[in-house]
Amino acid sequence: MDHTAHDHGAHATHVHGATGASWGTAVKATLHCLTGCAIGEILGMVIGTALMWGNAQTMVLAITLAFLFGYSFTLFAVLRAGLDLKSAIKVALAADTVSIAVMELVDNTIIALTPGAMDAHLSEGLFWYALLGGFVVAFALTTPVNKWMIGRGKGHAVVHAFH
After folding, report:
1. Helix (H, G, I), strand (E, B) or coil at 30
2. Can you tell me the mean pLDDT for 53-81?
3. Which of 13, 96, 151, 156 is the most exposed place for a label (fewest CB within 10 A)?
4. 156 within 8 A of 17, measured Cβ to Cβ
5. How many CA atoms lie within 13 A of 57 on its CB side?
6. Do residues 111 and 118 lie in contact, with contact meaning Cβ atoms separated by under 8 Å?
7. What confidence tens digit (pLDDT) does each residue in 91-114 have?
């Protein structure tokens, strides 16, 4: 891929000898992570609820699928960039693990603490409000984490060498 048109200077700025990520870069990285997490989380919640599984089984499935989909977005992108599978897996794990973990912790805590949300059915607004509200709060709390990590060459920053 031609990197001459890509402005890597937008990813980080140098402040007093330290590297700091821009808020725009952190927001983009968090949205990337949120997309994969949301697909997996919603799919897991829908499957578990439709199968009338218990709360614990449904939450485990949702979290597992959130990690799977979250990693897969990065994995496919770096595979397209030419990395071998083993290297691509390492990049995806390094890029997304903390972001997905924070997002899932926050999102699932919101759902668990929302009265009635864990027992709500797919047809009820409470199910969707708690789930989507959890994503909003998770995004707000994960963005600064991603900004901090990217600014230190960690997290999503490891992907930039491959696009």
Report:
1. helix
2. 93
3. 13
4. no
5. 8
6. yes
7. 899 989 999 999 999 999 999 999
